[in-house]
Design goal:
By secondary structure, the protein is of the alpha/beta class. The protein has helices spanning 42-50, 72-78, 95-101, 109-122, 124-127, 139-151, 169-184, 196-202, 220-225, 227-233, and strands at residues 4-13, 16-26, 31-35, 57-62, 65-66, 80-83, 157-161, 188-192, 205-210, 213-219.
């Protein structure tokens, strides 16, 4: 049994069908990536898993339990963290307050304090800005904060939506190294990325979405070697 199972999920925004019979799985310990063009349905897929959008039909299970009847906060309590597209930090709150808010489902202060130290070890720059308002951080720092906030819920599955978007090449490399480090620590990762080459380079498996449908599913190595995937998403480069 996979840690996350999505089966035959349809999602619509009014009359517009955003996802059509989406099925995917994520095994414990994997990094799995969803790649595709803008509007393909990648963000919608993550939002459906998080309970932010209700599918028209289909099933979503986490560790064998049905997620579709749960509210977003209950999904977090089950062990799924979500770092959303666009970071969406709380601009008027400090870095510390944003991070502590990520632990809202937890009640053991000593564990929260320990995990805060862990996040600041991963992102030492945040440790230098704990009392700074999140809205005054750079784009890269806000991305670090968004990932750190999701980690504060101590997720078994961490979903990352476009973590490299808008960042400098140096920061992109930093973020992907962090993702590998998070995975190595035992957290399963579902990664949405337009930087398909970088995403496939660190993932075990991948899915390609086009207009709300999965058109390719394979190991990351095979997707990197695919002429069709290279031509559409990797700029033709091997």
């Amino acid at each position: 049994m996979a840690l996350l199972e999505v089966e035959g999920v349809d999602v619509a925004y009014g009359r517009i069908r955003a996802l059509s019979r989406i099925s995917l799985r994520v095994e414990q310990g994997e990094i799995v990536t969803l790649i595709g063009a803008n509007g393909a349905g990648k963000t919608t897929t993550l939002r459906a898993i998080s309970g932010l959008i209700r599918p028209l039909r289909g099933a979503i299970r986490f560790d064998g339990s049905d997620l579709l009847r749960l509210t977003p906060d209950q999904v977090v309590r089950r062990g799924i963290g979500h770092s959303p597209e666009g970071r969406r930090v709380f601009a008027r709150m400090t870095v510390r307050e944003n991070l502590e808010l990520g632990a809202f489902t937890r009640d053991r202060a000593s564990e929260v304090a320990s995990d805060l130290k862990g996040v600041l070890t991963i992102f030492p720059r945040l440790g230098e800005r704990l009392v700074q308002k999140a809205g005054t951080l750079s784009g890269g720092e806000q991305q670090m904060l968004a990932i750190g906030r999701a980690l504060m819920s101590r997720p078994r599955l961490l979903m990352l939506d476009e973590p490299s978007l808008g960042l400098s090449p140096l920061l992109v490399q930093t973020i992907f190294e962090v993702i590998k480090r998070i995975s190595a620590s035992g957290t399963t990762v579902l990664l949405v990325e337009q930087n398909a080459h970088q995403a496939l380079a660190i993932a075990q498996r991948g899915y390609v979405l086009e207009v709300g449908k999965i058109v390719h599913e394979d190991s990351a190595a095979n997707l990197l070697a695919s002429d069709a995937v290279r031509a559409a998403y990797l700029g033709g480069a091997a």
